[in-house]
């Protein structure tokens, strides 16, 4: 099967190609009967306008704004690596901004007349994104809306409940029963914390929680606090890899061997986790696939602006490295 | 002293503010005498048009394209942190692209009608930047042109000869005489290699060199090769921190204690060097200051498009951490 073209739509509807174009542009210069015939042919053939051709026709920029929350977290670059080839193949050109240092970036992108916007990661404030999304097709990638948020927007994200379950069940299988979780803030932090608590209690394990921004410093501080308790945990699930690296540093400060005396699991499986000197067990939440599907979702949205908003979750997997083992009895 | 304004120029020249504006816009509707009077006042007062006001007047975007070679290297984000506040203060808005994955990005920025372009790091190919620079004010940051390159462009970079000297002299002072250098490719790689060889020979030390792209893998491979020689080096100067982390991993593979049996120095002092688990001695080549000065240079260039191209080098400093010590005799 070849992709239906404007020519095949015209043949099916018994009209000219230029009349099909007029209908697709919403021109008022078409009779209701001929409009109905064209739209019926579009539906029967499953025709979708090519976004590149369409944006060229409108004289648009073919640029897509990619708003990344934090350029210091390599996870965002992994998402970008998934987004980029799909956009390139559609003739679209990514331009980037870092959300936490450029809070006005959604407006900048709108002013530069980008064709679309992908917001990657959890922003402190979605207010401006909501405004811009009214005029610019927008997809959220690698984040979740808070429960009950009325923002009707496409979302592609890793399935964090499933990912956290993989991490906790790995530790339970190794024999750990005293767990700790260093939790992040925001919707993703909340989601991961809830999933850790559910999975631990389902396995009959206790879990103590410390919370903070998802940074190495948080991990270091929380790690020291947890590991100097009278009854310290034998394993820590960190909200992300940066936090996990901080926990590892706290263990080293206290002379605790990893994984002999303490197991640590990160989240995101960033390039830091793979560094030989770190070799962190971590949950690969499919950043590349999240990026790829977010780009595809944006192309679909450009082709069909009126489709209902869509939530797509991508399955994660656990990457076991050198920081997890059975607890010493 | 307050900054001269268009009002003070008008007063000095004995003309109206709007006539000064006409002269600055190159309007032909001004007599040669009055033009000369205005330009004399501009020179006497050292007046510079405010680039923001000027770009608003031309109906431009106030966006500045920042082309970063490699988003996985945190050094680029450090440069960005230096650039950003200066651009913001001038009412300019950064948009980013990664050069190695978006070779067409200079053209994208030009098509989006950015007011200026800053190229950060060493690009594999400056061809398109040269073309775009003919129409868009451009500054290179954190890189150098090859010797004799005729490209007349502003450059702001760390003083790599001085930085390498700091690293090598630190090792010589500790007593090392058998050095190795894992060198990078391109003008910056060449410059650093030449400087290592000069500083080593000035100190009566020998140096063996391995070359490759500036990645952890290169460091790991070169490290294994160097450390399994019959007469292995007691210290390695790496082309950058990523390479140094690879060398550390090779030492760990071979059971060589750092810094007991091997000293390692990185370059760039990225956030990786500061991770507690790495704690790498490294040369801070003032990424933040390079960014700050590159942004200032761009503002100057916007204000004075005809000034001659400028090369500015920023002094580096050595950050001694846990990977360097005296060699075991």
UniProtKB/TrEMBL annotation, chains A, B:
It comes from Kineococcus halophytocola. CDD domains: HTH_LacI, PBP1_LacI_sugar_binding-like. This is LacI family DNA-binding transcriptional regulator. InterPro entries: HTH_LacI, LacI/GalR-like_sensor, Lambda_DNA-bd_dom_sf, Peripla_BP_I. GO terms for molecular function: DNA binding. It holds the Pfam family Peripla_BP_3. PROSITE patterns: HTH_LACI_2. Keywords: DNA-binding, Transcription, Transcription regulation. SUPFAM superfamilies: lambda repressor-like DNA-binding domains, Periplasmic binding protein-like I. Residues 4-58 form the HTH lacI-type domain.
């Amino acid at each position: 099967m070849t992709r239906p073209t404007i020519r095949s739509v015209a043949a099916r509807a018994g009209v000219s190609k230029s009349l099909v174009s007029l209908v697709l542009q919403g021109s008022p210069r078409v009779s209701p009967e001929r409009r109905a015939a064209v739209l019926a042919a579009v539906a029967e053939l499953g025709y979708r306008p090519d976004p590149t051709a369409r944006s060229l026709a409108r004289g648009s920029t073919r640029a897509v704004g990619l708003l990344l929350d934090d350029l210091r977290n390599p996870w965002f670059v992994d998402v970008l690596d998934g987004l980029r080839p799909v956009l390139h193949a559609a003739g679209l050109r990514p331009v980037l901004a870092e959300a936490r240092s450029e809070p006005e970036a959604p407006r900048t992108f709108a002013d530069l007349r980008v064709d679309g916007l992908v917001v990657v990661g959890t922003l402190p404030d979605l207010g401006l994104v909501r405004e811009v999304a009214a005029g610019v097709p927008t997809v959220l990638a690698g984040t979740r809306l808070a429960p009950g948020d009325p923002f009707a927007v496409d979302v592609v994200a890793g399935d964090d409940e499933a990912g956290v379950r993989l991490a906790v069940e790995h530790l339970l299988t190794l024999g750990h029963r005293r767990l700790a979780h260093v939790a992040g803030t925001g919707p993703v932090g909340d989601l991961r914390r809830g999933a850790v608590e559910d999975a631990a209690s389902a396995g009959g394990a206790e879990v103590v929680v410390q919370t903070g921004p998802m940074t190495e410093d948080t991990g270091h501080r929380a790690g020291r606090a947890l590991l100097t308790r009278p009854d310290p945990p034998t394993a820590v699930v960190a909200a992300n890899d940066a936090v996990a690296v901080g926990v590892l540093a706290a263990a080293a400060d206290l002379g605790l061997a990893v994984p002999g005396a303490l197991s640590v699991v990160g989240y995101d499986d960033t390039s830091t986790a793979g560094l030989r000197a770190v070799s962190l067990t971590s949950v690969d939440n499919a950043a590349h696939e999240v990026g790829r599907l977010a780009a595809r979702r944006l192309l679909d949205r450009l082709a069909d602006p009126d489709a209902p908003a869509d939530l797509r979750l991508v399955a994660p997997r656990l990457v076991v490295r050198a920081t997890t083992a059975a607890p010493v009895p």
